[in-house]
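notes to self, project folder thing:

trying the whole complex as one job this time. last attempt i did each chain seperately and stitching them together was a nightmare. two parts in total, labels are on each line so i dont mix them up again. if this works i'll redo the older ones the same way
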Amino acid sequence: MSSRVEPAYRYLTPEVCARIEALRPRYPDRRALLMPALWAIQEAHGWIPLEAQTELAAYLEIPAVWVHEVVSFYNMYHERPVGRYLIYVCGNIACSLRGARRLLRYLLDRLGVTERAVTPDGLFTVERVQCIGACELAPVVQVNGEFIGPVDEARLDDLITTLRAKAREATP
Amino acid sequence: MNGPSEVRSLIASYWEDPAAASLAGYLARGGYEAARQALTAMKPEDVIEEVKRANLRGRGGAGFPAGLKWSFVPRTSPKPKYLVVNADESEPGTFKDKYIMLRSPHLLIEGAIIAAYAIDARVAYIYVRGEYDVCRLRLEEALREAYEAGFLGRGIFGTAYDLDIYVHKGAGAYIAGEETGLLESLEGKRAYPRIKPPFPATVGLFRCPTVINNVETLAYVPFIIRHGGAWFASLGTERNGGFKLYCVSGHVRRPGVYELPMGTSLRTIIEDHAGGVWQDRRLKAVIPGGSSAPVLRADEIDVPADFDALAKAGSMLGSAGIVVMDEMTCMVRALEVIADFYADESCGQCTPCREGAPWLLEMVQDILHGRADPSYPDLMLQVAQNILGRTICALGDAAALPVLSFVRKFRSEFDYHIEYKRCDVEERYGGVSNPD
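result (full assembly):
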C-alpha cells in the first residue's frame, strides 16, 4: 500500500502546473520545458524566488542547478521583485545617438530611484537594457512589453502620469 | 521566369495592407498557394534546387546560401529532423523581423512549411526573443488560424506530410541569437554556443539533424516557389538574390525598414529612402550591418549593400542594421556604447572574449575619463587582434571588429581625448556631442 504524497508547492500552483503540462507534448525532453515553465511561474508571481526554482526542479525531476543556471543567465527572468510597471530603457547605439542616456538619468531622477529598484509605491522599476529591436523608434522604452518611442522628457512625464492613473483605477 | 516583370517590393507589399496580417487577407493575396504547390507538386529535392537557383542567402548575418544549408541535412537519417526559426533578432540596429512577424506572420509560417517539407522536418520551433512578446502573440494567433485551415497539423493539403510549429519564448540574451547558442537555449540550457563541427545539419537540436533559418530568409521562400528561383535571383546582384530588408536608424530623417533590391547602394538607402542625415547636418560615419560590422567613413558609402560588395569594402552586410552617425557624434563615446554591449553579452565560455571584451570597454572608458596614456589606442588594437578568430562563436569577432575600425579610422579623436582630456567634437560644436 503506497500512496505518493504530493509535496506542498507554494509557487507551482495548480494553474502554473496546468500551463506547464499543456506545453509538455511540444518537447521530446523535460529539460526543454524549463524556459516555458519559468515564464509560467514569473507570469503568475511577478518574479522567480529561489524557492520556486527548487520547486520547479523537483517538479521537472531535474537538478536544481540546471534551473538556477538558466534563471541567472537570462536577463528577463527576475530574481528579485519588480514594480508593477517595468520600464526598459534601451541604451544601445541607435538610442544613445538620440539621447537615451540623458533620458535614463532623467527618468531615474523623476522617480527618485536607482536602476532596478522598486519605487516605494510598488509601481515602477526602471532598467537600462541592451538593444530591444526597435531602433526606428529611438530613443525607445518598453513598458511591460509595449514599445513606446521616440520619447523625450515630456513624453516620459506623460507616461508616468498615465501609468499612475491606470494603477489608481485598477485599485480604488 | 514567370514572375512579375516590374517589382518594387515583395515582403513590404504585404505591410501596406493591414488585412494581410490575418489569414483571410493573406489568402486573398494568394497565400499558401506556394506551400500547396511545393507539397503537392514538388519533391523535396526540387524545392531545394529552386531555392539554390534563387541565390537566397541567409538574412541573419552570415549570408550562407539557404538552399545549400538545407541540402546538408542527411535525408536517410533515421532521427527526427527539425527546422528552427531564428526570431531572436538582437543585433543592435536590426528590427526587420519584428515587422514580418507583426504584419505578415503568414509569410513566415508559409516559408517555414516549405522549408520543413524540403528537409523532412515534422516539428519546427520559432524562437522569439523575450522582448518581442507582441510578435509572439501575433504568431500564436496566426498559427491557430493556419491549424484551423489545415495548413498545419496532420495530412497537410491532403498529402501524407504532417507538421507542427511551436513558438518558444526567449528570455533576454544576445548570444541566444547565435545559432548553436539558440539550440542550447531551446534545450533549456544557458545559451552557450557549441564547437563546430559537428554542424547542426547533422547534430543539432536534441542531437538531431537541424536547419536554423532567420525569419526574413524564410519569408522570401514563398515568393521563390511562386515565381521561380531564376526570377528571384534576377532581382538582386550576382550571388545575392532577391530583395533585402534594410533597417536604417540613428541620425536620419526617416528611420525605418526599407525593402530594396539586394545591392542597392548604401548612399541611396540612406539619402533617398531614409531621407538623409537629420537637422541638415553632415554625415560622419555609417555602420552598415549591425553594431558588430566595421564602421565606414562618410566617403566610403558608395558601395552596393550586398554580402560580397560590403565584405570587399572591409565591412559586412550582416543583419543590414544601418546605423547613421552625424558630424556631432563623438566616435570614442559611440565606441563605448558598443564595447559595453559586447562586454555585457559575452557568454563567458572563451577566455579571449570573456576577458578581452571588458578590457576593451575599460580602455575606452579610461580614455573618456582622462585616465589613459598615449599607448592606449595601439593597446586596444592589440587586444582586439588577439580576440579575433580565437573564440567558439563570432561574438568575439563582433567585440573586436568595431574597435579595430573605430580606432583606425578615427584615431585622431582618440588621441585628442587622451592628450587634452576633452572631446574635440564637443569643442567644435559648442559643448554638445552625441551620444550624451
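what i see at first glance: The mean pLDDT of chain B is 97.
need to look closer tmrw
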